[in-house]
Every structure is written in C-alpha cells, then in structure tokens.
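User: Fold this, then the next.

Assistant: Folding the first:
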Amino acid sequence: MNKTGAAKAAKYKAKTENAFACIGYQNYRKLQKKIDLWMDEVGLSDARLKIKLIYLMDAKKTITVKLKGHTDLTEIHPDAFEIVRTHKMAWSGQGENKKAYDDGESLIGIIVEDLEVQRRALDMALKMKGLYAPEKREVTGRGGRPIEYKIITRIPEPDPPVDNGASRDE
C-alpha cells in the first residue's frame, strides 16, 4: 500500500486523489522515525536489507529431471545430485549376448542460477542507486483534457489599506 492508499484506509476525509496523497505524505513524514525504528526492531534495518539484496543477486534454484535407465550424474551436469532412484533389472539380447541393465527411474536435481530472481534484485539495486532514467509520465487535466493554465504578464499591485475613519491619535 502506498501513502495515498494509507490515507484512504485510515478513513481521512478528502475530496481528491491529490488531497489523499498530501495527507499520506504528511503522515509519512511525521512517522518516518518511528517507522524506521519499527523496521530495525523486526530485523529490517537498511544494512540487513542491503545484505539480503546482495544474496538475492546470487540466487539459485533446483530443477528436477526424471530419467529412465542407468544415469551417470557426471555426464548430466556438474551440480546434479540424485534425489530418488528405483531399481528394475531388465535383460537385452539372447543367449551369450544376453546382458542385464538397470531399467529403473531416477529423479535428478540440478542446481542452476535463478535468473528471474537475480534480474529482479538487480533491477531493485539499480533503482535504489538512482541509475535508471526517470520514468516518463504524461500529465493531463481533468477528464484527460489538456491542462488549463493562465499566463500572468504583470503582478497586480496590492490593494491600498482601507481607512475605516478611526484614528490612533484620538
């Protein structure tokens, strides 16, 4: 939830989105120190969040592959490991050419880079450092119409003070 949503959820009475946004921002500024303290108390300090982000940039995941027959893990992948193997002996050939082989199944795990998690972590880090160009936003007036504005060419003179007839000397 953003600051605008927080103001709405707190049941503030405002007429426009901009008013809710202003209320939300003002409350955030008032409560910022308290929010930071709460975040630190629950283990979400700035330093801890940065360390977590660094770990996410090296994220890995395990994919599983089901194979039938004899498997040599070294031929599959250097980070492959056996999860489960069933054994079933089968025979091929006849007579002197008859050979036994493993016809079971293996469930193999392979540890690989989790590229999607790494991409998201990198995206977040770049945003935190301000290394992205600002997002282009289109601003329009009410109902999507062009913004209405007035150009003032001169600053009006202030009204002279009103003399109500009372004098200080009297």
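Now the next one, as you asked:
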Amino acid sequence: MTPDVLTVSSSKHIKAIATAPPQFRKSLHTIGCGYGRVSDAAVANLTRAVPHLKDIDFYDTHTLTDKAIISIIRNCHGIERIAIAGSDRTPGKVKCRGRLVDVMEDLTLAKKLRHLELWNQMLFIRGVERISKARPKLAIVDGVTVGDSMATRVVAAQASGRYMHVYLGGHLDFDLDYICKVADYVW
C-alpha cells in the first residue's frame, strides 16, 4: 500500500518522487516538505510528475520564490491548498508580484484553490490584494510566526504581538473559524 501523504526534506527527495513509478505518484495527494533547501526547479519537476496534488506544504523553506507557486498553479489543476513558510529566523522569498499575480488572475487555472498560506514571506500587499480580488473564494493568509507546527504558528502570531492577516474577496478579513480550520486547532 502506498501513502497519500508524503513528507520530504530536499530537492533530492523531490527528484526521487518525480522519477518514481507512476502508480506511486498517482497515490499522492498531499506533499509536505520542510527543513531543507528546495528549489523552484524541483517544485516544477514535482508538479509536472504529480499533477493531481491537492495539498502542498513547504515549511521552514526559505528558498522558494513566486516561480514555485506559478509551477503549482499551472501544473496542479486540482490543487486546493498551497502553504509556503519561511522561518522566524529567515524569511522566505515569495513576493506576490508580477507574473505570479498575472497567473493567479487567470481563473482557468487551479479552479479549486481555496487556501494560499504565505508565512514569513516579504509580500507586496498590492499583489496579494489583486489576487484576492480576482479569486474572492480564496483565503490568503499572510503572517509572521514563531514555531514549526501550524497551530503554534497561528497561536504565536496572535498571542505574541506578531501579525496574521487573512485576505478574502480583495479585503483584509479576520475569520476565526477559518483560522481554526487552517490550524487544525479545536477551540
């Protein structure tokens, strides 16, 4: 039996997945990757090889740029959630500008995308707002956090004076139910 969720830690692991037998690749729906250096090119190879991914989570990964999100959006038509987190020590390189905004405004791509989480990134807010306006059902989470788990990120972001924004329909919103769902945290 093959897993439907897989966690890896480097571009080398991603290359192994991309070249794995088709039956194994078809069994994957969620991939998590953290604590390693992952390149935009590795994400492009992964999403071409496993185009049916629904959920992809990169944590404590500060090497990815807008190009990684573009690859996911273009290659994974059924993607529902994308999460990319830098760390509280080293911010990520996602910017939300230029080509990424243009690709995200193309509503023929990634029609099921509902969650875009960009933790510890250096975002251009105008780009985030444009994406949010173009995709009103997409919740875009932007925040600075402490800790590794999603629950720790959310709680630390709120409790320690750090910030967390949720954009819905082109506007900054605060939806506690959504935050709880994202954090897998039961209140």
